[in-house]
Amino acid sequence: MRHVILATLLISIATPAVEAQDLPGWADSLNANRPEDTSEFYASDAVIMPPGTAPSGGRDAIARYWSHLMTVGLSDVDILSRETLAAGPDRIYETALIFWRGADGARRLQRSVILWELRSGEWQILRHTWNYGPQRFD
Predict the structure, then answer these.
(1) For the CA atoms of 13, 19, 23, 25, what is the dihedral angle to 10 degrees?
(2) For residue 56, which phi and psi values (nearest 5 degrees)?
(3) Deepest in the core among 48, 65, 79, 83, taking most CB within 10 A?
């Protein structure tokens, strides 16, 4: 029992206070059709896992992915954070709703990200996945 209490105390001491990290500018860069700027929000070894396609890794591949979506009409992107959990001393797991308009109409998506805190205190995306689901709205 002592080990469980000690482990719980150590985890709570080592885990920073967690606040939602909407990464100001991420949605703005998508809405401005700037895929290279969007890719800068990702770590150099980040991976995105879009539904129905193979994962893409690295900033160049991520920029190409967002560029393609922008070409086919991605717009009006907005984020609403839902839950943020500590995943270690410099990582957090966050879920959010993303709203966007695309070639097939407006969508509400569930997004999950793992964010990594840089020494500068800024956050970058390490892993990013979302669903398209049946949540069309107009």
Answers:
(1) -140
(2) -120, 135
(3) 48
Residues constituting the chain: 138
Q: Which residue has the tokens 């029992």?
A: 1
Report field, pTM of the whole predicted structure over 0.70: yes
Cα dihedral 85, 87, 88, 92 sign: negative
Determine the Cα–Cα distance for residues 136 and 69; give it in Å rounded to an integer: 17
Round to whole Å and give the CA distance between 21 and 94. Answer: 8
Nearest-angstrom CA–CA distance, 31 and 14: 37
Whole-number pLDDT of residue 28: 92
**Domains of the chain, CATH where assigned:** 2-137 (3.10.450.50)
pLDDT digits (tens, 9 = 90+) for 63-72: 999 999 888 8
